[in-house]
Design a protein that fits this description.
heterodimer; A: alpha/beta; Peroxisomal Thiolase, Chain A, domain 1; 2 domains; seven-stranded mixed β-sheet; globular; B: mainly alpha; 8 helices; about 0% strand; extended
Chain lengths: ~325, ~140
């Protein structure tokens, strides 16, 4: 493994992504990536009694089917590395419950998928493990009640707001795999960046500086140009956050090409009235496990930089007037 | 960009609420809800022989019922998305804030869910309402007499 600079890693033997599975709710199914998802729910309760239970079931379904798609059983999986944005990441740990595998629960809010894939790749490249399952999830209704207001409250959503994605994505990464499978060739571990945004209804603005820091560091330390990648996708900055990231990078002298976009900004259609687009820990993972993974497996995309982004706030911290720290982790996925 | 300049820049460039459209919606819907209230009052007045105080109490209660009813049907939040203050400010909005919280926490049980959580949104309104009515009462007693 090569460490380049302080934060960037390029792996000598890049691990393979040998299986992926995505589950999304009905609104996401009607969005721009509708055909790419593996399972589209007709009802976001998923026949469960609460939204928290529904999120667990989605997460568990994504985990189990990703393992199946990789042609494995849970006995083959060394460790489950997962996270979500529910309190105490219960959706993840409850989903791992009952499986005979080691478990590492992570939290980087909506950047957790990037963190999980990076930590997993490092564990494999370090020779500590062979096969890992990385997954994250979020659910609009459980996030809404945890961070905001009751669902039936007749309040107005501000124009800078985003819509938490109801979705779960899971990938199996392994030391060995078939040629032509996407491989995690490296990445950049982000730093917490806080430029003093306190508005909880403008997460894009809060996370954009972290995305900017991570992207800038990645290109600087890896020595790669933005044009190296076929697609550069941030996690859930939304339209405003995406444009802000582009602006901030331009200020630093780095011009991002047209191949730069954001999973959150792309996941919904304009007429779905989500305003800035999607957010949540399940946003980048469900887009990766569906659209990106399938495009890479079919040879339409060869080099992708995925930069999941997270806003590390809690309801209590924002009520106490704290600003919102942002985080972003970059993973570079390539078909070699 | 740093901690001093960035929030200012975001404030300037963030997408803004379309004020005229929002205010128009609030005005029309808020006005319509009040019209419904007045109509209920007139209808009750026509069929029952009540005093003015009884009449307005009954009309208010009817509006609270309607606000709760449409919240339970899952329609009031849809109206609120468009109307904003137009459907929040009338008493139907107050009913909505209590009933929506109660529905939301139904799954955590009657005591710690519904009863403990139903005033999370409406709580401040009730506290200020009671506190200010005490002040008004004192003013009347001590100054106006």
């Amino acid at each position: 493994m090569q460490r380049k600079g302080n934060q960037t890693y390029i792996f000598d033997n890049p691990p393979y992504i040998i299986g992926a599975y995505s589950v999304v709710g009905p609104k996401e199914a009607e969005g721009n990536f509708g055909d790419y998802y593996d399972l589209r729910l007709e009802n976001d309760t998923f026949e469960e009694k609460s939204y928290e239970k529904a999120e667990c079931k989605m997460h568990k379904t994504a985990m189990e089917n990703a393992v199946n798609k990789a042609g494995l059983t849970f006995k083959d999986i060394d460790t489950i590395i997962s996270g979500d944005i529910s309190n105490q990441i219960t959706a993840s740990s409850f989903s791992a419950r009952g499986h005979d595998a080691m478990y590492l629960g992570l939290y980087s809010a909506c950047a957790t998928f990037g963190e999980a894939a990076l930590v997993g790749s490092m564990l494999i490249c370090g020779g500590f493990m062979d096969k890992l399952l990385c997954s994250t999830s979020s659910h609009f209704s459980s996030a809404e009640r945890q961070y905001r207001y009751p669902l039936e409250l007749g309040n107005q959503r501000p124009p800078a707001a985003q819509w938490t994605v109801t979705g779960a994505g899971a990938v199996v990464i392994a030391k060995t795999g078939k040629s032509g499978a996407p491989r995690i060739t490296g990445g950049t571990v982000g730093k917490i960046t806080d430029l003093g945004i306190t508005d909880v209804n403008n997460m894009g603005a809060a996370m954009a500086p972290a995305a900017c820091e991570c992207l800038y560091t990645h290109f600087k330390e890896s020595g790669r140009e933005p044009s190296y990648y076929d697609l550069i996708l941030t996690g859930d900055l939304g339209k405003y956050g995406r444009d802000m990231t582009r602006y901030l990078l331009k200020e630093k002298g780095l011009d991002l090409p047209e191949t730069f976009n954001d999973c959150g900004a792309m996941i919904f259609k304009d007429e779905q009235e989500t305003f800035q687009g999607g957010s949540g820990a399940g946003c980048s993972s469900s887009v990766f496990a569906s659209f990106i993974y399938k495009q890479m497996s079919s040879g339409h995309l060869n080099k992708v930089l995925l930069v999941p982004t997270g806003a590390l706030l809690s309801k209590t911290s924002s009520e106490q007037g704290e600003s919102i720290p942002g985080i972003a982790h970059a993973i570079s996925i390539e078909v070699l | 960009m740093d901690k001093n300049t960035y929030p200012e820049f975001v404030k300037k460039t963030s997408p803004k609420t379309r004020k005229l459209k929002t205010m128009l919606w609030a005005f029309v819907v808020g006005g319509l809800i009040c019209c419904v209230g007045e109509a209920i009052k007139d209808i009750i007045d026509k069929y029952f022989n009540l005093t003015a105080v009884q009449l307005s109490a009954l009309a208010t209660m009817s509006m609270i019922f309607l606000g709760s009813f449409f919240t339970a049907l899952g329609l009031y939040d849809k109206l609120g998305r468009k109307a904003g203050a137009g459907s929040i400010v009338p008493i139907t909005g107050f009913a909505n804030s209590i009933v929506s919280s109660a529905i939301e926490h139904n799954r955590e049980g009657v005591v710690f869910g519904i009863c403990a959580q139903m005033f999370t949104i409406a709580g401040p309104v009730i506290v200020f309402g009671i506190a200010l009515s005490c002040v008004a009462g004192l003013v009347k007693l001590l100054i106006i007499g």
